[in-house]
Structures are given as C-alpha cells and as structure tokens.
Predict the 3D structure of the following.
Amino acid sequence: MRVAKRNAVVIGALVMIGTLVAGCVGGVGNSGGGDSKRLVLIPGVADEPFYISMQCGAQDEAAKLGYRLDTQAPTKFDAGAQTPVLTGVVANKPGGILIAPTHATAMANPLRQAAAAGIKIVEVDTALDDTSVAVSSISSDNNKGGALAAATLAKLVGEKGPVLVINTKAGTSTTDERAQGFEETIKRYPGITSLGVQYNNNEAAQAASIVTATLAAHPDLAGVFATNLSSAEGAATGLRNANKLGQVKLVGFDASPKQVEDLKVGTVQALIAQDPAGIGAEGVDQAVAALEGKPVTRNMQTAMIAITHADMDVNAKYFYKRSC
Ligand code: T6T
C-alpha cells in the first residue's frame, strides 16, 4: 500500500485503517565531507522486519529520485545505542537523515545538533515530543490503531473478562499511543477489565514471561493486546508454552514472518499491519523536497490494516520482509 496519505482510514474485511547493517553501523560506503545527494536511514534497531521493509521502500524511492540512501542501525532499540550511530552519521554530513527516534525525549538533543548542522531531519514511524526539530514526521495513526485493536479484541473475547496490554518501552511515541488508544476504547466495554500495561523492553522473551506470570495470577485471562512485533511474538510464545492457544485471544501490531506464521496456526487471532515501506518512501520524498526547497508536509499518516486468518491470503502483500 503506498501510503494512503493522511487520515488513511478505511474499514475493510476486518478493518483497514488506515543493507540494514546487521551490526552497529556501516552503511554502504560513506562519501564523507558532506553530500546533499545522500540520505541516511537510522531505524530503531537492526535486522528487524518492520525496519527492513522500511529500508526497502526508502531505497527504491531514493533511487527513483537520483539520491543514494544508506542505512545505519543500532543493535538495540535504545537511545543509548542509537545516539552514537546518529553522531557518527552527522559527522559525515549527509543531506538528510530519516530516523525512527527510540525515545521521545532522550533522542532530542542529538537530533537538535544534527538539525543545527544543517541536515534535514525526517522522523519515520516514531517521533520526538519536540516538534521543532524534524521537517516532517510520517507514521501510522497509532492511537487509532490501538482503538482498533481494542474493538477487535473485545469482539474476540465476547466482550468479557480480563485483558492485558504488553507494551515495548515507555517513551516510544508509537507504542505509547497504541496503548493509550487501546485503554481509552476498552473502557467502553463494561464486561471487560483491563489488567493494565506491562513493558517487555522490546524483548520477545520478556513478553513471554509477562504472559506466563499473568496467567499464574489470572487464570481466566481472556485476551492480550501486544503493541508491537517483539511483544506479539513473545506473547504468542508465552501462550503456546502455557497451552492456552486460542483460549486466550491475542491481537498484535505488525506482521513479521513469525507473526504471520502465528496467525496461520491460530496462536494469534488478528494482526494490525502497518505500511513500513510506504513510511520509508514518504520519508525520502519529504527529505528530498526539503533539500530541494519544495513544499514539505509536516505530518503524514500512512495506512494500517487488520488481518485475520480468514483474509490473510488476500492480504499477503502487507506482510513484512526479511530482505529487499
Ligand atoms: O511496531 C513497529 C514500530 O511501529 C514501533 O515504533 C516499534 O516497534 C516496531 O518497529 C516493531 O518492532
């Protein structure tokens, strides 16, 4: 889905709302010394299908526009790991940086310095609280995605029972908005009790442990909303380990190959797929517009689609990639 720009919200079958460097840094041959025809994508973490799909979209678009796009990624989804990657990129002065900031405030200072060096900053997916740093921000409508997850899960659990949210890391703009949208909407179902939000630090193993511990305390757990890929993959493992497959309903954001397999075998009942390739492509368009003095759109929203087992074959084009 090359981005349905802004308010890309469509109700469909269930609903339609809408070279990662495998190490730390690396890129494909930095030109050094400043090159306005070079863009660098800094994802949240290396080697992860959401960001790989984003890189594929960004690379294709950059090639079309006569720009080069390199990717340099931290090995961990963490501001402490992302900051030195950003600092290294800034030292080589690319024309623009497309970045998914891993924390809404902790990444603000290094990004202010990048902008002060004259580099055009475009936020792809996540964003800073400070809206003065980036020239453009492109993401899903995450609050709406959380609300969609709540409505979907409520239906799956017959509108009753305890439900849990597994979130990634506090301070991640996107997943915090998803959790918020979920909590706001789930309140509308009087038969459903929210057990609140627990954080997995973007580690699938921690999400699995959260599910195990929650089932021990609440054997009647009816459903789980996992706000991203790592939490959804881990929650599925936790349910499998506890022999609760299908009994506890699971709705997860994203559509990695493992998540798709979990949907296929019934570990997960619904996935909310984003459009990372579209986010990457729009990110390049906005960075290039800023560099060439053309009009830039400050905020753009890309499409999302909720996919179930019943419609997974027709929606296979939305599944994330392991390589371009
Ligand atoms: O869900 C995506 C992304 O939108 C989020 O900001 C962080 O987690 C993912 O990258 C999936 O792991």
